[in-house]
Design a protein that fits this description.
By secondary structure, this protein is mainly β. The protein has 2 helices and 10 strands. The protein has a 10-stranded antiparallel β-barrel. A hairpin with a 2-residue loop joins strand 6 and strand 7. The two termini are about 35 Å apart.
């Protein structure tokens, strides 16, 4: 199905474009059973003219009515299509990218579709306490499936060996689930939430104004 490129958006971000904006809502820790704590969350997916999205998620514990109790955590990271880097791409460090992006049109981006009809993606997420996750997975329409390829832990970090995350757009809301393997145990439900869009995407021109 042909893709339309939103105004001012790098073509490579079109498959991820439905994420862009700010989302807020509530969820439950663990499997969401009786006794599992409630939390609130504010998530931002921002684009700055690069072929990746900047991701920030701020979470807080709350009571059953949604009243904030205390801060829970903050995580930040980057979401992008998983594909071989080209000479036009920036990095490492401050090495600048070419003015003309590596993928200049929707037709070129379409060639990156995988055999399942979606796009391979890579996601890096950083946590307090010396933990960094590298996820690989797929985005196919309004659905995202991610699994960790690597989890880096500092010398004094909590034990944490693997994770999976699932995201989906359902009736305009962002549903997600996060499973974690830690403490020598296999993957188990860690948290889930339903978020509603609270701020629409901004184009680079809007931010400049």
């Amino acid at each position: 199905m042909p893709m339309e490129i939103p105004t001012g958006l790098t073509p490579e971000l079109v498959p991820l474009s439905w994420l862009i904006g700010e989302w807020e809502g509530r969820g439950r820790l663990g499997a969401g059973e009786a006794g599992d704590e409630h939390f609130g969350q504010h998530v931002t997916f921002a684009q700055h003219g690069f072929p990746y999205l900047e991701y920030t998620a701020e979470s807080w514990l709350c009571d059953e009515s949604g009243a904030k109790l205390r801060p829970l955590s903050v995580e930040t990271g980057y979401w992008q299509l998983d594909r071989p880097l080209q000479d036009a791409d920036g990095g490492p460090g401050l090495t600048p990218a070419d003015i003309v992006p590596a993928y200049k049109s929707a037709e070129e981006v379409e060639r990156l579709r995988n055999s399942d009809g979606g796009f391979d993606i890579a996601v890096t997420i950083l946590h307090p306490g010396g933990i960094a996750e590298l996820y690989y997975g797929q985005i196919k329409g309004p659905q995202i499936h991610l699994s960790t390829d690597a989890v880096m832990r500092g010398a004094h970090s909590h034990d944490y060996s693997a994770a999976t995350r699932i995201f989906g757009l359902v009736n305009g809301d962002l549903f997600w689930r996060w499973d974690v393997a830690s403490g020598g145990s296999p993957l188990a439900p860690h948290a889930s939430a339903i978020l509603s869009r609270v701020a629409p995407p901004e184009t680079p021109r809007q931010r400049a104004e």
